[in-house]
Amino acid sequence: MASDYSATHITVDNINPKVLKCEYAVRGEIVSIAQTLQQRLKDNPGSHPFDEVLSDILSFLDLLCTHSSDYVQILYCNIGNPQALAQQPITFFREVLALCDHPSILDKSETQGLFSADAIERAFQILEQIPGRATGAYSHSQGIKGLRDTIASGMGARDGFPADPNDLFLTDGASPAVHMMMQLLIRSENDGILCPIPQYPLYSASIALHGGTLVPYYLDEQTGWGLEISELEHQLKTAKSKGIDVRALVVINPGNPTGQVLGEANQREIVEFCRKEGLVLLADEVYQENVYVPDKKFHSFKKVSRSMGYGETDITLVSFQSVSKGFYGECGKRGGYMEITGFSPEVREQIYKLASVNLCSNISGQILASLIMSPPKVGDESYESFSAEKEAILSSLARRAKTLEDALNSLEGVTCNRAEGAMYLFPCINLPDKAIKAAEAAKTAPDAFYAKHLLNATGIVVVPGSGFRQVPGTWHFRCTILPQEEKIPAIVSRLTEFHKKFMDEFRG
Amino acid sequence: MASDYSATHITVDNINPKVLKCEYAVRGEIVSIAQTLQQRLKDNPGSHPFDEVLSDILSFLDLLCTHSSDYVQILYCNIGNPQALAQQPITFFREVLALCDHPSILDKSETQGLFSADAIERAFQILEQIPGRATGAYSHSQGIKGLRDTIASGMGARDGFPADPNDLFLTDGASPAVHMMMQLLIRSENDGILCPIPQYPLYSASIALHGGTLVPYYLDEQTGWGLEISELEHQLKTAKSKGIDVRALVVINPGNPTGQVLGEANQREIVEFCRKEGLVLLADEVYQENVYVPDKKFHSFKKVSRSMGYGETDITLVSFQSVSKGFYGECGKRGGYMEITGFSPEVREQIYKLASVNLCSNISGQILASLIMSPPKVGDESYESFSAEKEAILSSLARRAKTLEDALNSLEGVTCNRAEGAMYLFPCINLPDKAIKAAEAAKTAPDAFYAKHLLNATGIVVVPGSGFRQVPGTWHFRCTILPQEEKIPAIVSRLTEFHKKFMDEFRG
């Protein structure tokens, strides 16, 4: 087949090898199986003991593309995509976006009947901040100044320390910001980036694409995925001994896929470590509004470092935020930003140049980023409905997390840490030798072997732990807490029934 | 100052040298001068013989950031940004976007009073194409399948040859698509990309960022910026003799900054050349709706190659399209796409992987991309108003192009080719030796020297030709045709008066 294309001269053997090396690990065989099942279900409903594929895969995207309304219903459990699981958007946010898209209706009388008064007022305010009220014009490459002012004051209110709008770069989701920093910091494979294991695959993919080296540090599952400084020191030392110039430390808080929330004392140690070692602290804080346990609270690394008395010239800190997570889950809007502090003016200029090559991020995403950092306040017409929508989503997520966590811990050989935050559970499965041998015979990782059996038997799709990396010899899978609450019991009973059968079969 | 940051360890000397090497040439000194002037005008209105800065700079973005309504009015003439110059968005497009952002108003009676019937109907159709009607969910990494179907049929109607929705990758504007192809094709500085000179700086910037080599080919100004195959052959041979592996040919049609529109016979020669040499043809076709002369017509390279009988396996062709240009000029929405044909399934998989690492492009931009390829049709309620809006914009642009072209050609020592398409004029200035010597003394390029004098005297900002590269020893500037039509006479008289004085001063 490929040979037909010989005339084109472009083959996998002569494209950029970094592209080949890059793995977006949560894609792959599981997805193909899920798609086949989905097709089969469409062709002969009832051909399987289940009528839904419960999928926790980043590449649910592949499923979406073949989805159409006449399909047997598919339940997308991908953690990053709440609105694909029927979560409704926050009304106030969408009102403002619609009005900014079509400002000519702002003055019409019918508009008062359709939109809340504060949404109309907010749209007027935002349009005033946009030169010429032109939502269809390129903006400043860092994002519209007035919107950055709003975001900065929201961050200041959150942290108790001021944020500078000139430190903010608005981006199409958080991913482009992560790529921009990797592009800035990585010169060659001798440059290393410390990343947590398990990690979110965006980091390994971006480091590979930019030709750097991922320097792993392991989170301690026994202590609820604790981040030990001794482990950071050990891995840094090991990397240096191999001639790796370690440039930055990635911390994901709340954690993906682990769901842990760092304690403030731990964060102080991390800041101290980065300052001492002169590492850029890349703080993935996109789940900052997703904390489910009363004994944990989100603290931004900016707040922690400033509360330690460290300022602009003491530590280099980058924080990533996104409109895709939180309680709003506006993944499709591709809004996000990074706050950069501790870079010299000369380096900032280079970062600005990188941003300017792509002109600017999409204006709707920029507006939404300002809205999540300045939601309706007490007294605003939308305040009560907004708060109700927010509370309903977050409290339901907390209940789902607890239910799934308990269910997983009740399974033979499965231990699961709390989902303190984010949107995931990452249980450890102690697989029988017979299952591991069977997996080896099938030339697949034991956790992928388990996940495939789970999918075939129940239609539940989870991501094998190997997609996120894990301590060698341990096996996990990532499971989202996002399915609609009324569907959780069915998921639990299917999973429980499957797991028992699987263990009986392979206990040997 | 920078030394204060020594603790941070990140300096311009130890970041990725490719970032340093990357130049976004239309930024720079001219912008700083414009900003200073703008500030001075704000502080003391009337301190200059002009009250507007007429700016044709990609980095008008810098100006935007300091703009606020209490400023003396600034007229943004940046070619890429019509809505920053008071061009109004197309009503039908914005109606549909607003309804898709806030679907819950679709069924309300007030909505019929505010939106056209076909916009409401179109919003329903589009929401039907989106799994779960979730405009806030990540989509397939190539874009929502239903929207790609719409775009593909629009392309099929345009070309008379079918387009496959699976060949389309929807992106946040065209720039990410260009970067994706450079990332795929460039392995090292030994890989070359043939680019027109003058060129749009996105290409030189992207090639530098990915570590490749720009192989220049010169457009022939004497023949209206003609693209000579002999020149392509000559430059390809020269590059090969230097050990450069030339992988692709970039063609911008209609041209930026030159404004030329290629003839179909010329396009056939280009296709034949790429096929013979096994080069990927990267066709920048973002100005496909911007053709102003009756004797020229846009033909996509896909149509041309298919009409020559060349199919999927004969030539590798990538076409870039954007919602930022055309008559709609929706730059801020960041919508666009590329059509890829002639890649083997294995290579396509790698391109898909690159797209999937960033999850998907923004959904509003995806919807807009489908709308520009399927506008209202005869019989639709919006058809007449839509056609009137479109015709008004395009006919006005044609008049502005002609007026400016004539004015420029009337200046001593200035020759300017027709703006057959796109949004620019790129006049050649025959500068007196005295001016060239003065420029050398001032350590600046002669065309930058001219542009600075023009800015200081009139407030008109143009981009020196050196920002786009040009035949050594020739001097140009890029001038947009986008200022509001009623302001063109003032621009012409200011420019004419300045030029006369400048020539008198330096004629020597």
UniProtKB/TrEMBL annotation, chains A, B:
Record pathway: Photosynthesis; C4 acid pathway; Amino-acid degradation; L-alanine degradation via transaminase pathway; pyruvate from L-alanine: step 1/1
Pfam families: Aminotran_1_2
Domain Aminotransferase class I/classII large, residue spans: 132-494
SUPFAM superfamilies found in the cross-reference section: PLP-dependent transferases
EC number: 2.6.1.2
Gene Ontology molecular functions: L-alanine:2-oxoglutarate aminotransferase activity; pyridoxal phosphate binding
Keyword Transferase: yes
Single GO biological process annotation from the record: L-alanine catabolic process
Keywords, ordered alphabetically: Aminotransferase, Pyridoxal phosphate, Transferase
CC cofactor: pyridoxal 5'-phosphate
Entry annotated with the keyword Transferase: yes
Domain of life: Eukaryota
Enzyme class (EC, first level): transferase
Protein family membership: Belongs to the class-I pyridoxal-phosphate-dependent aminotransferase family. Alanine aminotransferase subfamily.
Complex and partners: Homodimer.
Protein name (record): alanine transaminase
Upper taxonomic lineage: Eukaryota, Viridiplantae, Streptophyta, Embryophyta, Tracheophyta
